[in-house]
Amino acid sequence: MRNFLGHSSRRLKAAIAFPLIGLALFLLSNRVDELRVYQGANVAVFVVAIISIILLTGYSGQISLGHGALMAVGAYAAVLSQIYWHLPVILTFFVAVLAAAGFGAILGSAAGRLTGPYLAGTTLALAVGLPSLANQFGFLGGEQGLNYDVGLPPAWLGADFTQYKWFFWISGLAALIITWLSFNLLGSHYGRNWRALRSNPTAAALMGIHVGRSKVLAFTVSSGLAGLAGALLAMTISLVTPSAFPTSLSFSIVTGAVLAGVTLLTGSIVGAVVLVAIPEITGALATHLGGSEKVTSNLPGLLTSVLLIVAVLLFPNGPQAIMKRTRKSSQ
Amino acid sequence: MERLFNTILIGVSGGSIYSLMALALVLVWRSTRVVNFAQAGQAILSTYIGYEVITHTDNYWLAFPIALVAGALTGALIDILMVRTLMKRAHSGPVAGIAPVIATLGLLGLIRAIVGMIWGGDLRQFKLPVSNHGFTFGHNTIPFAPINLLIVVTTVVVMLIFSVIFQRTNLGLSLRASAYQPEIARLAGIRVDLTRTIGWAFAGAAGAVAGMLVTPTNYLSPNSLDLLLVSGFVAAVIGGLESLVGAAVGGLILGISLALVLEYISSSLAFPVAFVVLIAVLLVKPSGLIGAKRTRHA
Predict the structure, then answer these.
(1) Which residue has the higher pLDDT, A262 or B204?
(2) How large is the ipTM?
(3) Which of the listed residues A288, B20, B95, B166 has the most CB atoms within 10 Å of its CB?
């Protein structure tokens, strides 16, 4: 009974907290300059992408190095549905989710039978190869890509409501909804199944959890979220090109998830802020140190990789595991 | 018929390089139970070092052993600096299983960034060590050129050296024992940590050879070996990820089937074909075509 009450009060808290956070963010977006608003939009995109990895890796224990490719699937699906079916923008986001989820379900049915290294290698192959396919089929627009236009902000928001702010509102709202849905999903029996599966697949199977089906479901949901993140990313650059989804994008979101502590949903915001902050930090560092173009263009990659290695070596289970340990030892 | 024969020859040459990359992955997998995605980075670093030697001395044959040693040293260094810590720290908790994979990924990014900082992102080209004009028989010139012969012969030599080391020497015995049962090998007096470092060094050397062989017919850039890493992985999976012979055979199977598809169907299908082969092998015979008959564990 206590459990039940605790559960429902958590839901209640979330139901109050999320609209408040949303309101605070939207008020904030009026206070800061354009660049920050644009970065805010990017943070929101990465929050969605990182949550897709957290669901997959942190909860169901599967790894994907190919979520950048799934983001590309979502982005291309969105832009194609806009070009050929003239769908309204909001529906193209749903198309992105469905297309990527469908692709993920196919991949996941293969992946559900794969463990660690095989899954990692298969998804890596996807990340390396899939975006380059766009160059081989004319209707995908090749290296120039396809324009993805979500339109101007509606007039009733006022004349000084900028395009970037509109991007921020859309992606911020998406990130909030996704976070809220994920909280509920992970609190449901699906979330419990995934956790059981991650800790001990054999025991989970004995408890009556269908291991294969649960894994495929996790992969499908995660892919759908990646697809949405892809469409949102395409929105912020108004373009869908193969070069927007390089292999390093897949690695970045895995890095973000590791930095977030792969089992902590709220950590996604930390991971996303770090990912967006890295280019800025290295940019500032580069102007300060005055290195050559070769050095400056590789600084972000260097910093991301070092962060990833340090994070995995020092706190393989996320920063919060360390905090828990210190709390325990201080008691 | 002649066209088929030529295509297979080209496939053998391409497949040899996949075999080498697969070998590098298998060596690390056996000793550490990690698919080393940083292998593409290690190989590219060694190849750039080889490139540097070539531009300074204009001698491919000098650059080759230097790149090989550089590859071996990098591999050993990575094991000592990173893998040892990883093995000690990341063995429990929800993400213990994937921590090593993520670490090698970070390493790949790190090496690539360092290579980019030193050499920049421009495409570079090797001077060919031997001709790339096909052999001529009478009036017929076939696509198979001296450079392809060099690739095949070098691969065969490398494979032979490794099989002699593994089957005929004490070092090979301890490498096999540590791969099979690290705990028992330790009890039998084998220094498992050291053996693993040697495994990484061998893998680094094999990757360097792959890089030095593929680059003359291609170009060099900080991520020019990414596709080779994927092909090497596919080849290793076809071979069962455990066996050296499997790596060799897997590479050849992939190389020949890719060459056939490119020649007879479409040249834009290379990646989809490799990917379909990978998925098919994983679904139909997940232990690999050559692999031991037992279920897979992470």
Answers:
(1) B204
(2) 0.83
(3) B20
